[in-house]
Amino acid sequence: ADRHAVTLWARDDAQLAAMAGARQNERYLPSVPLPASLRLTGGPAKDAARGADLVIVATPMAALREQLGALAGVTVPVAWLCKGVETATEAGAFGLLPHEIQARSAPSLRAGVLSGPSFAQEVAHRQPTALVAASPHADVRAALVDAFHGPSLRVYANDDIVGVEVGGAVKNVLAIATGLCDGLSLGLNARAALITRGLAEMTRFGLALGARAETFMGLSGLGDLVLTATGDLSRNRKVGLLLAQGRTLAQAVESLGHVAEGVYCARSVVQRARHRGVEMPIAEGVVALLDGRVQPAEAVAALMGRDPAPEIA
Ligand SMILES: NC(=O)C1=CN([C@@H]2O[C@H](COP(=O)(O)OP(=O)(O)OC[C@H]3O[C@@H](n4cnc5c(N)ncnc54)[C@H](O)[C@@H]3O)[C@@H](O)[C@H]2O)C=CC1
Ligand SMILES: O=C(CO)COP(=O)(O)O
Fold first, then answer.
1. Is the CB of 60 under 6 A from ligand 2?
2. CA separation for the pair 160, 133 (Å, rounded)
3. Reduced to 3 states, what is the DSSP secondary structure of residue 92?
4. Record-annotated residues binding substrate (predicted)?
5. Cα of 37 from ligand 2 centre, angstroms
6. What ipTM does this complex have?
7. Dihedral class, residue 5 (left if φ above 0, else alpha if ψ from -120 to 50, else beta)
8. Given CB 3.0 to 4.6 Å as the disulfide criterion, which of 157, 191, 199, 309 pairs with 141?
């Protein structure tokens, strides 16, 4: 909003009125005044997008299909911020990545994703952050870099949307695992091992879906994994910490008040990986824990009890 005329569209009229009154989003991003120039609006999303040069969908994964459907026919670039895979299944398809949902629900859109290590509070406070804009379309990547690259935000372009989206989804599942590890006081060695082996399984999964290995060494892979697995602002990490303290999943989710995408996408990630014959033991352990099939200590024992294996398969 410093450099562009920006309209924030909201689906919920009560929330819209609260934001307009307080000029703040007290429910989701407290203590951050909304820029004076930011226009707030409701009504049909497509009307709000009329006249825009770029549309950003900033909802959780669960709302992406509906929101993209509502934007069908928009001709300017559209990008989403969500990190995860779809939990609902279609005939013959499950664990769809965001761009795969777009290809099914609004195939005419020219679209992409903005991802990378970026806690919202820090971005809102203009703390230095680097992101990646991914799309198969060069003009969409350029539009995102042009709109967002600035003094406190560096935006790199990448045409590997599969790799960028796999990184964003899988790091959430792995952050639950590292939260659990830290909550159980297993130590810094264990955390480093989980992050590194987690990166290996994220990469295996991505390669099976057609991603490039180098993408996982970048901001949306290693970068976001390190941030989310170690940063206490992470909601996914918090879920792991709370489970380690003996809270139930329902209690952990309830206490967050925000979405923790790993809770919703872990099963679908594992289901899709199994279908592709990709081993993801850490993600499997997280799913067993979330399903209540194992206790935290049993999940750790199962991982440590695996047979020896070469580091690079
Ligand atoms: N918060 C963060 O630091 C970051 C979040 N993300 C990703 O962005 C996505 C959204 O996360 P947050 O905003 O943090 O979640 P949040 O739980 O804090 O807020 C969710 C927002 O989406 C809205 N919403 C929910 N369902 C909707 C629907 N059907 N239609 C329209 N709006 C709807 C809610 O009203 C709320 O404003 C997630 O996929 C997350 O992984 C990505 C980067 C950083
Ligand atoms: O994606 C994020 C930071 O890049 C936010 O992570 P959480 O959803 O775990 O808070």
1. no
2. 10
3. coil
4. 83, 235-236
5. 27
6. 0.97
7. beta
8. 157
Does the pTM surpass 0.90? The reply is yes
Which residue, chain included where needed, has tokens 């081993």? Answer: 279
- The residues spanned by each domain of the chain are 7-161, 162-304
Nearest to 117 by CA among 272, 237, 290: 237
Ligand 1 centroid distance, CA of 11 (Å): 12
Residue 156, beta-bridge partner list: 132
> Which CATH fold would you assign to the domain 7-161?
Rossmann fold (3.40.50)
Active-site residue, from 141, 171, 204, 237: 171
* Pair 159, 194: CB distance under 8 Å: no
Residue 102 in contact with ligand 2 by CB distance below 6 A: no
Domain 162-304 listed as CATH 1.10.1040.10:
yes
Q: Catalytic site residue 238?
A: no
Distance of CA 2 to the CA centre of its chain: 25
For ligand 1, what atom is nearest to the CA of residue 123?
3
Sequence-distant (6+) residues with CB within 8 A of 38 are 1, 6, 7, 8
Beta strands of 140-238 (E only): which ranges? 153-158
Q: Hey, what are 124's tokens?
A: 């809102």
Residues framing ligand 1 (Cβ under 6 A): 11-12, 28, 58-61, 63, 66-67, 81-84, 118-120, 258-259, 261
